[in-house]
Design a protein that fits this description.
InterPro entries: NadR/Ttd14_AAA_dom, P-loop_NTPase. It comes from Rhizobium freirei PRF 81. This is NadR/Ttd14 AAA domain-containing protein. Strand 4, helix 6 and strand 5 form a beta-alpha-beta unit. This protein has one domain: Rossmann fold (3-Layer(aba) Sandwich). It has a five-stranded parallel beta sheet with strand order 2-3-1-4-5, with helices on both faces. It contains seven helices and five strands. The relative contact order is 0.22. Helices cover 51% and strands 12% of the residues. The longest helix is centred in the middle third of the chain and has 19 residues. Helix 1 crosses helix 7. It is α/β, with parallel strands linked by helices.
């Protein structure tokens, strides 16, 4: 869907901060499925966590991403997604060899412009929900920088600048007021 714009890339690269800046500018946003799943699983004692059962975690991320898309269809205007279905399908394919990326990627399209945060070691911080290290985050980024173009998306690497300048870059690239 042309109104659905993906913000993806290296974990810890400033996606959530950028998403908040876009929300403050009046755009609809959808928070990262992974963070929401980890919070739910930690609250309920569940095991669908990336460090406990990665495949279950990824499958939950796919389900949540599909639900997010369905809910976002009722919103007007541009909707920015912090990660989403393509990221989860890429991870599932990488982990299991299933052809998830091709099937989900072709059935559920987003705006042709995808914005990726590059690795930014100076701001990367692990936390209670982000337990992987920077090298794992970089490996994921390197996979996504190949997978998005393979599905026909135009990838824009976000500059390592302040959040408002990043938001200006996104809005300008999309031709938004």
């Amino acid at each position: 869907m042309d109104r659905f714009v993906i913000l993806s890339g290296c974990s810890g690269g400033g996606k959530s901060t950028l998403l908040e800046a876009l929300r403050l500018r009046g755009h609809h946003v959808v928070e990262e499925p992974g963070r929401r799943i980890v919070a739910q699983e930690l609250d309920t004692g569940g095991s669908a966590l990336p460090w406990a059962d990665l495949t279950a975690f990824i499958r939950r991320a796919i389900d949540m991403s599909l639900s997010d898309r369905e809910a976002a269809a009722a919103l007007s205007g541009i909707v920015f997604f912090d990660r989403g279905l393509i990221d989860a399908a890429s991870a599932l394919q990488h982990m299991t060899g299933e052809r998830a990326l091709t099937s989900y990627g072709q059935q559920h399209r987003y705006n042709s412009h995808v914005f990726l945060t590059p690795p930014w070691p100076e701001i990367y911080v692990g936390d209670h929900e982000r337990r992987h290290d920077l090298s794992e985050a970089i490996a994921e980024y390197e996979r996504l920088i190949v997978d998005y173009p393979a599905l026909g998306y135009e990838v824009h690497i976000l500059p390592k600048v302040g959040v408002e300048a990043r938001a200006d870059f996104v809005v300008s690239t999309l031709g938004l007021p």
